[in-house]
Amino acid sequence: MYDCNPGSLCTGNYTCEVGYTGRMCADCAEGYFRAFDNCLECISPGGNIIAMLCMYALFVYLVVGLSRDMETIHLLMNFCQTLSIIALFNMQWPLIMEYIFNIAGILSFEMDIIQPQCATDNWGFAENLYIQLSYPAFFFVFQGLWVGAIYLAYRTKMKMDGKTLEDFSSADFTDSLARRSASGSQKSFTSQKSFGSANMEVLEVSGWWLFLQNYFHIPSSPQEMNEVILEKMSIPFMAFNLGYVVILKYCLQAFSCLDFEGTSYLYFDPDTKCYTPEHFEMMAAAGAGLILYIGGTWIMFIYVLYVLKKTKSFSE
């Protein structure tokens, strides 16, 4: 005897609540899509896609805007990620707790909060896993290309102004690095006249327009270009940091199987049989995610700590 989770999805006599279907009523019926862990009736395929894109835009806003210098946002996100782990326990949670878990999913960077079943029927746990694993790589690639475009514009600007790297002293470069090192204790960049100014401070003072102007700003010196590179490439690291727990959760879920009458099914997607070619693909992707993202994060932190200790960057 296996209970549906939540139990309200199963109405008895092997039937599901309206909008649900599949083994253990774990899927959305045709004409419904999953949002906030509930199956809602489709309005239009386009509206479903727009809602999903808006959710992704919210994630980007949280990374680029709110989370950069606000420790309270970081604490809130960490708390929401903890709630998303607690929600995995197979318990009949009260309805109010289900609502809390759904809201927490928004701030825990779970990409399956809104799913595009209205636009395609072939969407399930595998697609959510691949999306969750690909978004950190997307941030790294996008920001890398953006930094490359800014660098080309910077070199063109230098050439048009008739300047070369020799026109800037190494002392200026050293001073730029010193300013950035000092900014760590102040939680914002001290170079207020350059692009190194914290994005959140610009956002608070002058709104989105100046924020966008700052984002598209082309540096005028090697020192400023260095600050742009550090500023831009910090964004994908922050995005990955915010989604670390969720990525770990998804990767582990791909290996969780449930035996039902002699057949193993994926616990978090009961319509998927375990140890089939499809499941092996999911396990391979999840294994790569565990090695690249989870293991890589620990290796990176250990290496950074080693370098900081070797360069005597820690205070006495």
TrEMBL record:
Q: Which UniProt keywords apply?
A: Membrane, Transmembrane, Transmembrane helix
Domain DUF7630 spans what residues? 3-42
Q: Which species is this record about? A: Dunaliella tertiolecta
Q: Which domain of life is it from?
A: Eukaryota
Write down what this protein is called: DUF7630 domain-containing protein
Q: Which PANTHER family does UniProt cross-reference here?
A: G PROTEIN-COUPLED RECEPTOR-RELATED (PTHR11319), OUTER MEMBRANE PROTEIN PMPC-RELATED (PTHR11319:SF35)
Q: In the UniProt record, does the keyword Transmembrane helix occur?
A: yes
Q: Which residues cross the membrane?
A: 49-66, 133-154, 235-255, 285-308
